[in-house]
Every structure is written in structure tokens, then in C-alpha cells.
Amino acid sequence: MFNHKIHNLNDLLIEELKDLYSAEEQMEKALPRMAKAAHDGALRQAFESHHEETIRHRERLEQVFALLNVPAKKRHCQAMEGLVAEGKEAIGEDAAPAVRDAALIVAAQKAEHYEIASYGSVRTFADLLGHLEVGRLLQATLEEEAATDKHLTTLSQSLNVRAQTEVHA
After folding, report:
1. Would you say the pTM of this structure is higher than 0.85?
2. CA distance 142 to 41
């Protein structure tokens, strides 16, 4: 998981931030492809909006690194790589449009849940270490990720019903 030993909670915080930096960068590249593949206009708009938000998340992480006096470096996030690969599989499905949209939502929510877990952890680490401004910035991103997940859940309610009745020609 880590290239060097973690000696303390601050080391773990930095390593996890590097992982998140990579995860956000990977999502920044994946979301436009997901938006293009979405058939439903509201879903496409959700992916486009989250793409813009993801750029802000990456920039916010750069602020966090600066506040911690640590270079903004990434450590390749293997988890996000796998989640992005699942999104690519959803895009490539030969399925009815609403079914593909449902698959895209599943893939996106898996990524959101990973980010929610990660941001919750690093926010807690930052708070425990007394990095209050860092914790505030990470909390802001955590809240945005949770709001995106909630929005995707709302979209899925109607799309899943449509997917249930739609048959691929």
C-alpha cells in the first residue's frame, strides 16, 4: 500500500492525501467520458457538474498540501484505477440506454463512496493533529462528495424504473 514506513499519524495523513490527489486526477479524466456516455440529460449534467467540482477538489488538495508545507505529489491510487475501469466497462456495455445509465450511476457511486471514506478519514486525522484549516477544507470536500452521492441516488430512482422496463433492441 505504501512505499515507505508510516511512523505516525501525520505520515499516514500525507500518504492518504497523496492517494486522494491521484484519485481526484483520475476522476477528473473519467467524468467527461461518463458524461458523454450518459443518455439521460440530467445524468449527463450531473457528471459535467461533478467534473467541475472535481477540479476544485484537486485544487483544494493543493491548498491542503501548501498548508502542511508538503509538496503536492500523488501516490497512484490503485483503488480509483479499478473503479474507473468499472466505469469504462459500463460505458462499453451493449445495453439499452437507461440500463447503461443505471450502470454508470453504480460505477460513479462506488467512486463517490471511496472518496467519502477517504476524505472522512483524512479530515479526522487532520483534526486530531491540530490542522484545523486543513480539516475545514477536507470537510468541505467531504460534504460535496456526499451531496453528489445523494444526487446520484435521486437520479437513480427514476432511471432504475426506466431501466427495468427498457429492452435493448
Report:
1. yes
2. 26
Q: Could you tell me the three cell numbers for 95?
A: 445495453
DSSP states of 21-71 as a string?
HHHHHHHHHHHHHHHHH--SHHHHHHHHHHHHHHHHHHHHHHHHHHHTT--
Distance CA 125, CA 20 (A): 14
Alpha-carbon gap, residue 147 to 156, rounded angstroms: 14
Mean pLDDT by 10 residues, the chain (169 residues): 78 97 97 96 97 97 98 96 94 90 96 98 98 98 97 94 78
What pLDDT is attached to residue 168?
60
- The CA angle 71-77-81, to the nearest 5 degrees, is 140
Taking domain 9-165, whether its CATH number is 1.20.1260.10 is answered by: yes
Rounded distance between C-alpha atoms, residue 156 and residue 43, angstroms: 9
* Residue 115: C-alpha distances to residues 24, 57, 85, 145, 161 (Å): 9, 11, 16, 7, 27
